[in-house]
Amino acid sequence: MATLVTFHAHPDDECIACGGVMRKAFEEGHRVVLVVATRGEHGEVPDGFLAEGELLADRRVIETKAAAEILGVARVEFLGYVDSGMMGEPTNDEPGSFWTASVEEAAAKLAQILREENADVLTCYDDYGNYGHPDHIQVHRVGLRAGELAGTPRVYQATTNREHMLAGIREMARQTGQPEPAETTEMGKPEAELTAAVDVTAYLDFKRRAMRAHASQISEESFFLSIPDEAFAYVFGTEWFIRAGQGPGITEKDLFKPGGE
Question: What is the pTM of this model?
Fold first, then answer.
């Protein structure tokens, strides 16, 4: 049995980015540990969703634990930083925000968990945080540094296949009669930079159920839960990663096995 530690910025990021590999690892007998930098204090929530006096952060912790159970997570940890909000918001610079945190300090916290777990695999995000969110960029910085400090042998940067996603958006636009998107997108990374592609189609039911557990952020009307099963499988059926020293091209199809065999 090996151990996967998967590091994310906010509650619900884990199931969107890595829900498939988490459930896959669990079903293959590995230990799965989820570490979340913040409690998602600045997420948006519909009026009346929370009980009187209930804090969104508290609700999101409950949702995270429910999603974690669905995905087979054995341990959930929060690093204790505050959600920084979207890039350019005043909340970026508030005391305690993850964006303003010392990378060395945060990495030391994560590295301690990696050492406790004797982690074989760590996931974080790419250097753009997939779409430019400050907390996601910080997950990249902190995750890579923590992997160095703990000596974790396999560190993967979760990302999105830009060309794959763009092709899917174009097809959905064609089917619905909407204008096609521009040639470029700021989400994810070009396919040429990716080194690992994990087929998680067998675990999509768990992935979608985990998304549904984050009801404060992912409503039934959201893109994640409202798109048809075929489209969901296209968008979320493969989880993409970058690992330094691998490539060019996709050289791994499993996060635990050398060469991804």
Answer: 0.94
